[in-house]
Structure formats: structure tokens, C-alpha cells
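Dear V.,

Thank you for sending over the compound details. I've combined the ligand you provided, adenosine-5'-triphosphate, with the protein sequence from our construct and run the structure prediction for the complex. I'm sharing the raw inputs here so there's no ambiguity about protonation or stereochemistry in the SMILES, which I know was a concern on your side last time.
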Amino acid sequence: MKILMIEDNYDDLAILNEHFKKHKDYQVVHSDSLRKSVENFSNEDIDLIFLDLYLPDTLIKLKSSFKSIPIIILTEINDAELAVKALNYGAQDYIEKQDLTASNLIRIIKYSIERNKNMKEIENMNIKLIELNSKKNEFLSIASHDLRTPLSTIYTLSEMLLTQLENDEIKPEKLSKSLNMINDSSRKILDLVNYFLDISRIESEEIELSIKKIDYIQLIHEVVSILSNLSEKKSIHIKIEKSIESIMVMIDAGKIEQVLNNIITNGIKYSRENSSITINVYTKSDFLITTITDTGIGIPENKIGELFNPYKRANKPTGGEKSIGLGLAIAKKIIQAHNGEIGVSSIQEKGSTFYFSLPLK
Ligand SMILES: Nc1ncnc2c1ncn2[C@@H]1O[C@H](COP(=O)(O)OP(=O)(O)OP(=O)(O)O)[C@@H](O)[C@H]1O
Ligand SMILES: [Mg+2]
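Below is the predicted structure of the protein with adenosine-5'-triphosphate bound, written out as C-alpha cells.
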């Protein structure tokens, strides 16, 4: 273990060195100022620092250069108040020089290292909790926002129907229109809730695959045909390159269909009218690669890295389509569960290519 001693009093240093001599495991390096310590040792693997010349300012600077290294303050007698302050500024412990012996040196070092480790764990846990809390808040705001519109449609229409019923004013053609709208809105809510359930199940790692042998090219044709209504509305032409006529693969067809569905739907959502989407499938080593290229609005460079995280949205659909920001996060989990990889490259205003690989063996 390497210990950095920051001490400007050479008599004290001699005593400390004497104590350390009895412990072969410790290699002690020395510096007599904060500046020299940072210059000479901040890039070395230091395990622990003993610091004299203590001032809160020194400690703060030291902690910023030697990030997670435990620091023990050496104090003169009667310096307890200053020493306690040092703990508040992030030192692990303090010891009065007069109390220092070869044996309590070991104890204090071991305790400080252990305490430092525990503190780091708590800090990391705190960061995780803050992240989770903000994710939860983000989720709640998106969920309530997206649920609000269809719910208020149902509420308003059903209230209106009840009043009309009471007053005997219901007309069959209006009733059917209202019921259709209620039906539509309920469908939207159901889709959303299923989606949320999907992501929470997937986030808690409960992704179970039901692997079967299927013709992958046929699956792609099926997905494209399901989406043809959507693409035709925007006059977007979907083309499947004919590089492979058919290929049998072992996958969870339902889940991969979900991935294809989301990526192709994204291509439609984030493209303007009269554009095109090209799907290409080929093999590379032991992998089956699928690329889906659109000529749409593209993705800003600084947003690309985060799109596969839940609720990250980079831009708005061009035709007012729904966008929750979960599709790609779900797709990533599904591809990873198949031991594949997923990614994207994109140029703004030119288009995007999403690709994923699936192992063939
Ligand atoms: N082909 C694309 N072109 C441009 N941006 C895209 C494309 N695909 C995805 N994006 C961006 O990535 C974000 C995340 O995509 P993702 O599929 O996860 O969510 P979404 O489509 O907004 O909502 P949903 O949960 O309904 O899929 C989108 O909101 C969009 O900003
Ligand atoms: Mg999507």
C-alpha cells in the first residue's frame, strides 16, 4: 500500500517514518506542500494520504486532485475543533501526533480505508436513487400527460351521453360516433398501459424468450404489410432489398417483430411525406444483420447516444403521431436478450440508419 505523507515539519516526519518502518506493507512517499503533492503524485496510485498543514481550503483542493483517496489529518494537541471540521470537509479521520504509535497507526489506516469504501458505496447508491427518482418523476409526468387526453375524451363523451339519455335526446348516428370515439380512446389507454407494463417488466430484467425457428424474411414482409396503412398515409415507400430470399433463424418471433415494428414505425413517424424506407438483411460472420434506413428528419448528434434509454426523445413525429420514447429502449433489451447488438447512425435532415444483429448460432 502506498501512502502519501504531506508534512512540512521534518522532525514530525522522522517520527512518522520510524513508525512506518515497522510495517513492511506500507510504502511511504513524502511531500512538504500541497502544490508539490499534486504535481508529483496525483497521477500515481496512492491508497491513503496523511495530511498536516491542514486548512479547509487545502483539504478541498486535495480532495479534488486525489478524488476518492481517504485522507487522515495529523493535528497538534488541542486542535480537536479544527479536526472535526476536517471530517466535515471529507477527511476520514484525524489523529493527534502525540498519540501516534506504530500499532494505532495500522488501526487508523484500516478504519479509514474501510470507512472511505463505505462512504463511496453510499455515495454511489445515492446517485442511483436520485437517478431512479428522476426517472420515476419523468415517467409519471409522461404517463399522466399521455393518459389525460384519451381519458378526458371518455369522461366528456360519457357524461354527454348520460345527459342525453336522461333527456331522451339520444340519436343513433350520434351515439355510434360517440361510442366509436370512446372505444378509440380506451384502446389508446390500453395500449399505453400495456406499454408501461412492458417496459417495467423489461426493466426488472424479466425478459423471457420463446425461441422458435422461423423464416426471417417472411417476418419482415409481414411487419411491412401490417404497417402499410401507416406508411401509405404519408406516401412513404418501404422497400425490402432482395439480397436474401429467405433465411431460417432461431428467434422469439413476437419480440423481434416488436423491434422491427418500432424501428420501421419510427422511420415513418420521423420522415416527411413522399420519402422512403429501405430494409436490408445480410449475414456477416455468424450474425444476421438488419438495417433500416430512412430519408427522414434525422437525429441531432448530441442526442444519438441516449435514444436507447427509456423516455429519451430527440425530436417530434412529423405527422402528430404518438411518441412515448420507450420503443427503442424495449428494442435494445430484446436484442440484447438475443445476444445481439443494436445501434444507429444518423445525419440531421438527411436520414437515419438503425441496425441490429442477431447471432446465427
Ligand atoms: N428513424 C428516426 N429518425 C429520427 N429520429 C428518430 C428515429 N427513430 C427514433 N428517433 C428518435 O428517437 C426517440 C426514441 O425512439 P423510440 O422509438 O424509443 O420512441 P418514440 O418512437 O418516440 O415512442 P414509442 O415509445 O411510441 O416508440 C424518438 O422520440 C425520436 O426522437
Ligand atoms: Mg418508437
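A first observation: The chain has a mean pLDDT of 89.

Warm regards,
I. M.
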